[in-house]
Amino acid sequence: MEKFYMFNIIVSEGLKPRIERVVRRFFGKWMHISSRKNRGAYNIVVLEDKVKDHSLVDPLTAELKITEDMMDIEIAKAIEHARSLIRLSVGWRKGYVIGVRNHLDGLEIHPAYDVFMAWLGLNQLMKIHIPPHAVLVEKLFGGKYRVFCSGVKAGELFIPDDGCEVSTNIDHQRCMEYSGEKPERLNRNSMLQHINVARRFLDSLGKPDRVIVSFSGGKDSLVALDLAVKHYGAEHVEAIYVDTGVDFPSTRDYVKQMEEELGVTVYSAYAPVKEQLSTRGLPSKNNRWCTLLKTRAFKEKLREITRRDEKILVIVGDRDTESETRSRKPPVRRRKWYLEAAPIKQWSTLMVQLYIKMYELPLNPLYEAGFYRLGCYICPALTSLERRIMFEKLWSHINTLPWINEYFDLHCPGACPK
């Protein structure tokens, strides 16, 4: 089989040496340079022009224009901007449509931004009464979000990392009526193209002896798991879930549910975070000691269930918009004794949601409550949104969990009922 790349940069012979230098310096070997388009890849067409503007050609292709005076770092940033065009361009055509040239008025394209449909709980918090899939949210920097209702910018949402307060500035008159169509139907063809890229990417990795998915119970790892099942067959896919002892009980139940729904074996590994809290204290943003324990528990379980002579592929749900660190990682990482792959690296949260809706996958109930991201119930990465939902909607179910009061006393003193 011809070697396949997830990202394909198309350049003329005259520009090729210059782009090769930039790719080698900033991206390494995970971007391919060619002279023609690849229908099974994300294509970035580099054009030399005096005008520094970039545009989307189709759901998988973006054009970027460079000038003679641009420095290498500027070209690298232009490539990242082109990738974000593919990921973030959303328009309104009786519903939200991905991969369109003319995106929503007020939507800003930036490599670190993300877009997603509001979950039901977030809609309720913003006091918006149209269907959740009619509300699009763009995640910016510093806890700032833009809110669109039925394709029109309706205001802002502020979700600080610290504390438990969430503030909104919404023009509710713009959110009164909705007569659109379900986005999973409108975006089916575009999503099939993104899914094709992910599956062609998996094809390029050869035929592993074991396929193991890192499954946290979150939306991204759910899509990674279902994608693996559809690509390799449920009988050839296994998963590992790492329990820290301070996971939401509903997440543990959900993992068991998906094991049955998808027909895969999910091995449970244990990271003794709960046992070390009394001596190490609650994890913080600057000291996430729990992450090391979780990684170690995953690898120990992986060693336990596999043999050294097997060709092992570990599939993860990492995506670029989650963090700058993850965006810098290549889609394939060679570990000491296994291969790690991120087939949905290029996807936005909206694409993840569309996949889940297209295939009618059960969702972790914490999302419907309004969570943007999941983690342990003492996770320092939870924002004021998740904390507010925890004490406003979930408190009667979680108030007896170990360390929950200490966590809220630290992050939101006086916020929770005792």
Written overview of the protein:
It is a single chain. With 418 residues, this protein is α/β, with parallel strands linked by helices. The chain has 3 domains: 82 residues, Double Stranded RNA Binding Domain (2-Layer Sandwich); 85 residues, no CATH class; 190 residues, Rossmann fold (3-Layer(aba) Sandwich). Helix content is 36%, strand content 21%. A 6-stranded mixed β-sheet has the order 15-14-13-16-18-17. A 5-stranded mixed β-sheet has the order 2-1-3-5-4, with helices on one face. Strands 8-9-10-11-12 form a 5-stranded antiparallel β-sheet. Strand 1, helix 1 and strand 2 form a beta-alpha-beta unit. Helix 1 crosses helix 2 and helix 6 packs across helix 11. The chain starts with 6 loop residues before the first strand and ends in a 7-residue tail after the last helix.
How would you summarize what this structure contains?
The chain has 418 residues and is of the alpha/beta class. 36% of the residues lie in helices and 21% in strands. Helix 1 (16-26) crosses helix 2 (72-88) and helix 6 (219-232) crosses helix 11.
